[in-house]
Amino acid sequence: MKKLIAGNWKMNGNAAEASALIEAVEAKIAKDMDILDKCDFVVCPPFVHLGLVRAKLENVAMGAQNCSQRGNGAFTGDISCAMLRDIGARYVILGHSERRQYHKEKDETIAAKAQAANAEGLITIICVGETEEEREAGKQNDIVAAQLEKSLPDGVSEDNTVIAYEPVWAIGTGKTATPDDIRAMHAFIRGKLVAKYDDGDKIRILYGGSVKPSNAAEIFAVEHVDGALIGGASLKADDFMGIAAAA
Ligand code: PGA
């Protein structure tokens, strides 16, 4: 399976910086096209930069960081899946821990958003992961199992869904889960997917949380790690592509 190298730009960058970043990433891929045999690329800019990033895409796909579960209408401040599709997004990140934390997004809302996204032909990147407290209490498998059970909509397949395991305590903290932690959790998630879906062995499972060029090789070497969801390091083309090179 090709690795999916996904950049989550979060709420960063002005228009000039977003343009420069996608240009730099595309330029690096253009110099080393063989990398496309090993990796698929997606970047997820803030909504307001989707149009300008789209205009510069060559070998990278584009995603959004959220969507509404509703169709177009009187929903001030929301962005529909149809709008994302129209502006050229192919992916949407859902259930990121920052959305769960700051916007109180519940599994049921995430499932409704995922359903709407899939209906519009978007591929969802659904994030799951335990907090530090939950891990210390040994509850990580229960937490992730419940998130998988409740935040995935009907009709999940390898074509419309990617799972991202992101331990909350590893996001933006510089703390990475150990290869053993990652191996155990990715095997656990794979088991759940295989038990529930016919193509559960082919649904990609990304790891996310302080992935950088220096730790990417050991993370990618872990079984059932099918790519990475990258926050901070996706804001520098050298780091983002350094992670891809490790794949
Ligand atoms: P990080 O973020 O790479 O900055 O830890 C990952 C994420 O939140 O997707």
Explain what this protein looks like in three dimensions.
The chain is of the alpha/beta class and 247 residues long. It has a single domain, classed as Alpha-Beta Barrel (TIM Barrel). It contains ten helices and eight strands. Strands 1-2-3-4-5-6-7-8 form an eight-stranded parallel barrel, surrounded by four helices. α7 packs parallel to α8 (179-196) and α9 (213-220) packs parallel to α10. The N and C termini lie close together (11 Å).
Give a brief outline of the structure.
With 247 residues, this protein is α/β, with parallel strands linked by helices. It is built from ten helices and eight strands. α1 packs parallel to α10 (237-246) and α7 (140-151) packs parallel to α8.
Q: What's the story with the biggest beta sheet? A: 8 strands, parallel, barrel
Q: Globular, elongated, flat, extended or rod-shaped: what is the shape?
A: globular
The portion of residues forming beta strands comes to 15-25%
CATH class: Alpha Beta
Strand segment count: 8
The H/E string reads: EHEHEHEHHEHHEHEHEH
What CATH architecture label applies? Alpha-Beta Barrel
Task: Indicate the radius of gyration in whole angstroms.
Answer: 17 Å
Domain module tally:
1
CATH topology (level 3) name: TIM Barrel
Unreliably modeled segments: none
Total helix count?
A: 10
Helix content, binned percent: 40-55%
Strands side by side in the biggest sheet? 1-2-3-4-5-6-7-8
CATH-wise, what's the superfamily?
Aldolase class I
Bound molecules: 2-phosphoglycolic acid
Whole-number average pLDDT?
Answer: 97
First-last Cα distance: 11 Å
Helical/strand content category: alpha/beta
